[in-house]
């Protein structure tokens, strides 16, 4: 599944107070303190003030020096555990780990932040970034999809806890992509079983796509392949009914044309294919359950 890494950043603080939430990483330049020289060299930082360490970490993030940023935020937390910058440094270290694709480390850091600051105004962002860490680890459909399930669980937690936030809206979009990914895995396994003539196992996979992933783009193919398998099994009435569901919901699809040809070859259908239905998803559910 093709994904673009999200570059949202958390709320950032400086001694002057709280700045607006920023969603573009280059805007981090606004946060560097006006302390003269802000140049950063690539070695462990001297232990300056908490503010200096924090702003140097932000500056390192801005220049894509993520390892140095992580070091700055970590030194701050170790030397100033009760500073006003410490909580946000924890969050920013998690973000820095995320940008380095160090997802387990980022999750660990974000879990620590949420454990220590459960009522923080940045909690929504922390839960969202944590979910993204799982989302970025989703494997190709050829591999085990436990990571996809974990990603969906984390994204659903964002929606449940913070339903009125932009994070919830984006989480819902990503859940839809996860569901499409899971449906793709079912189709991959179903095709394998069908090629091996393990027809009942193939039917189980295709039916799961139709019943559990109705909003994905894999449903038309699943229905068409059910028609094929039912015909191979000699279940002609099942094949005809499945073809009727496919015709009702996806009459203009390639998969219906293929199913139509198969059914016609078995003398189970004749005439001109019906026109497209405007009934929508609920009609699909009614059509499926009315014939099975």
From TrEMBL:
One annotated Gene Ontology cellular component of this protein: cell outer membrane
Annotated Pfam families: YfiO (PF13525)
GO BP of this protein: Gram-negative-bacterium-type cell outer membrane assembly; protein insertion into membrane
Keyword set includes Membrane: yes
Its membrane topology: Lipid-anchor
Protein family according to the UniProt entry: Belongs to the BamD family.
The protein's name in its UniProt record: Outer membrane protein assembly factor BamD
